[in-house]
Amino acid sequence: MKYLIFLLLLSGKLFAQSNDTLCKSNLTIVANEKKESSKIEIFQKTNASPNFEVSYYRCVWNVDPAVRFINGNITSHFIVNSATNNIVFDLSFQLVVDSVLYRGARIGFSHFPTTALQINFPTTIIAGQKDSLTIFYKGVPENSGFGSFVQATHAGIPVLWTLSEPYGAKNWWPCRNGLDDKADSIDIIISCPVAYKTSSNGMLVNENINGDIRTSFYRHRYPIATYLVAFAVTNYNVLNHSVQLGAINLPMTTYCYPESENSFLQNTNKVLQALQLFHQYFGAYPFINERYGHTQFSWGGGMEHQTNSFIVSTDENLMAHELAHQWFGDKVTCGSWQDIWLNEGFATYLSYFYFEKKDAAGHSTRLKNLGNNITSQPRGSVWVNDTNNVNRIFDGRLSYFKGAYLVHMLRWVLGDTLFFKGIQQYMKDAKITYGFARTDDLKRNLEEVSGKNLTTFFNNWYKGEGHPTYKVAWSNNKNNWAKIFISQTTSHPSVSFFEMPLALKFKKGAQEKTVVVNNTNNNQLFWEDIGFEADTVLVDPEFWVLSKNNSSIKEVGSTVLDEIKIYPNPASTNITISIKNPTAKKLAVNLLMENGQLVYKKDFATPGRDENFTIATSQFSRGAYLLRLEGEKFLTAKKIILR
Ligand SMILES: [Zn+2]
Question: How far is CA 602 from each of CA 295, 599, 642, rounded to the nearest angstrom?
Fold first, then answer.
């Protein structure tokens, strides 16, 4: 644990010197997110009944960070979707329910060891009816590893924090624990000894002290998943910053340990810059009517609690990653574990995007290192093919890194304008915004905006495994055109060919030109006008395509003269003229009758590559003709019979 924290701190400090540290820092984030999740039995995700939805929670909690204990009451506003006389919440069996109040009276309930808390109504509730109830409970929350409810110390001072992702909320409060329902809003009222302060979601609207108890009232008016509800309590110092996002001056609140105040004072400006950047490119900050915040805790990484990321330190990559989750994870939440990359791949990529804008010179090296990590193994898909395997869900190489590269390649395939427009549309798609999304929701929005069919792309890069290896064989012709032959092998049989645009940089001394070819078939031939005689070709020099061990081979150019073929002869409906390795920069084609009358003439202004063109002859009378080809000089003439 200490080692991980050390690495995080180190990566931030060393960033300027080594571009490799971003990848290491990301690995650390992965290690922590995985470690945390594996400790929670995530597959007992929910026992809540599907016959109701919660629209609002009012959470009242009393805690003391020096004592591992919680007591509180939760008022839930809900709507049942079919007539019923019971609904079932999730709540750990380790917590004791004292009573349930419904319309001013106590009602019956049954609490099962499965974590199901069944509420029994005295009469049947009809479908669509808005209703509410309050559950009073207390107890010592389950200790599930790094877990959902953690009591620790910092500098000898008690600290208490919650971290529910993915299914730990039920360990400390009664709720709907699944990844299928967000409350529209939440109020959180927490009391603790006056020596401490509480940090939670949304806006602190009131704080009062009564004797030796401090009560903080937080209000949040955006939809929120239960795993993103959190609080932390200790002797926090509170720092207030703000950042201009368009017309809005957004407050940024920091709750840090007193011993860390200098670090937060020095580094918070970095996350303010990231806020402006993400706001500009990925749509408005999702909780713009409220605020963003950092809360320090002692768990070895970060957690993207809504409006208030919990972070262990001011590591720059960690701050950017958790901030990015406010868009990708909090506003739009992956609707299935198969799609965890919609949270983690995007958050990882946005951190790379932040560093790309901040340190453009190191961008290629960071992408190269990221690619090397992913391609260190020949197999594995971004799509989680085994959701019963926690290590697979939180696999850093696949869900985080390859997911991030998938985002990067979408940007490459669509181009910046359509990519950012498409992502912004996805973020505000009424079907998923402030709700849950699947990969097909992303694909649909990107296709709508771009007009491109991305089925093959997602089949290859999301569902498919592995990556391509490119072999580029090329030569110059006398017109300084390059003849390029691209072949590809793949690292895994699930994909026989990766269809991608591919950048090729032609160089000679100070001269260089980059061309992008649309590589749609294996063993594909391209001609490109380079304009100088290159001696080197770099394959994908800016690392837009995830690939490995690419090679570029210059083939010794042919010195044969123009090889001209005119066929068929005799002809009936078409004459085809084929010129290999042309020397001419201009080409005139004249078809004459035997008496010298011109029946067809065409000038080709700038031939450079192998030329292949056809003259339609069905309209011409039958007989003998002369076909003349001229460049800057006479090339050839041939007698043609039309019959
Ligand atoms: Zn993350």
Answer: 73, 11, 19
Distance (angstroms) between ligand 1 centre and the Cα of 394 equals 10
Q: Which residues surround ligand 1, an ion (CB under 5 A)?
A: 344, 347
pLDDT beyond 80 at 514: yes
Residue 46 Cα to ligand 1 midpoint, Å, equals: 22
- How close is the Cα of 325 to the center of ligand 1, in Å? 7
Residue 316 corresponds to which tokens in the numbers above? 């720059």
Quote the distance between the C-alpha of residue 262 and its chain's center.
32
Distance (Å, whole) CA 121 – CA 108: 7
CB atoms within 10 A of CB 58: 16
* CA of 622 relative to ligand 1 center, distance in Å: 74
Work out the widest C-alpha separation in the chain, in whole angstroms.
116
Q: Is the peptide bond before 141 cis (omega within 30 degrees of 0)?
A: no
Q: Which residues of 619-633 are buried (b: 16+ CB within 10 A; e: fewer)?
A: ebeeeebebbbbbee
Tell me how long the chain is.
Answer: 643
Strands 309-311 vs 333-334: parallel, antiparallel or unpaired: unpaired
Give 315 Cα–ligand 1 centroid separation in angstroms: 14
CA 579 to ligand 1 centroid distance, Å: 57
Ramachandran angles phi, psi of 329, nearest 5°: 140, -45
- Return d(Cα 98, Cα 3) in angstroms, integer: 43
The structure tokens listed for 272 are 């303010």
Q: Which residue has the tokens 């093919």?
A: 385
**Rounded to an integer, what distance in angstroms lies between the CA atom of residue 607 and that of residue 587?**
7
Position 8 scores a pLDDT of 33
* 321 alpha carbon – ligand 1 mean position (Å): 6
Distance from C-alpha of 605 to C-alpha of 418, rounded to nearest angstrom: 34
- For residue 635, count other CB atoms closer than 10 A to its CB: 19
How far lies 136's CA from each of 91, 118, 131, 225, 428, in Å? 12, 14, 17, 21, 37
Dist. CA 280 → ligand 1 center (Å): 21
Q: Looking at the predicted structure, is the pLDDT value of residue 218 above 90?
A: yes
CA dihedral (270, 274, 275, 281) in degrees, to 10, reads 160
pLDDT tens per residue across span 228-239: 999 999 999 999
Evaluate whether the domain defined by 52-235 bears CATH number 3.40.30.10.
no
In CATH, what is the architecture of 468-554?
Sandwich (2.60)
How far is 576 from 579, CA to CA, in rounded Å? 10
Q: Which CATH architecture has domain 563-642?
A: Sandwich (2.60)
pTM score of the predicted model: 0.86
Same fold, 52-235 and 563-642: yes
β-bridge partners, 490: 468
- Measure 169 CA to ligand 1 centroid, in angstroms: 18
pLDDT bucket at 30, cuts 50 / 70 / 90:
low
The domains of the chain are located at 52-235, 468-554, 563-642
Query: How far apart are the CA of 329 and the centre of ligand 1, in A?
Result: 8
